[in-house]
Amino acid sequence: MNADRPPAHVLYSRHLEGGDPTGAARALWGRIPSTMMEAYELLAEVRGRYGEASDALEELRRVMKCQLRRLGVLTSKAEENIDRMDRGVVEGATSR
């Protein structure tokens, strides 16, 4: 890991812990909520700007379900989460 260019999850963690003096996380993502209430308020604001889910999102949902079904790994929980993508998606990262 390059100290000058840490991965996104490290920037995010530093921001939440109050240790991001460079402001890189805010520069990348804008306002970052620190509570669930702030996140809810931000969601309403963002939805107002972008409106309803686009045809591209619907196509992405369709393709994701199709591919997971083809691989035999489409669970009901995965399908529910794909259907709720318009409410927001959390990117996860694992280190190896």
Overview in brief:
The chain is mainly alpha-helical. The protein contains five helices and no strands.
What does this structure look like?
The protein is mainly α and 96 residues long. It has two domains: 1-51, no CATH class; 53-86. The chain has five helices and no strands. It is extended, with a radius of gyration of 17 Å.
Question: Can you give keywords for this protein?
Answer:
mainly alpha; 5 helices; 96 residues; extended
Tell me the Rg in angstroms: 17 Å
| Tally of strands | 0
Main beta-sheet strand count, sense and barrel state = none
Quickly give the structural class: mainly alpha
N-to-C terminal Cα separation, in Å? 12 Å
Unreliable residue runs: none
**If you average the pLDDT, what whole number results?**
83
Q: Specify the number of helices.
A: 5
Task: Please write out the topology.
Elements: H1 8-17, H2 24-29, H3 36-50, H4 55-71, H5 76-83
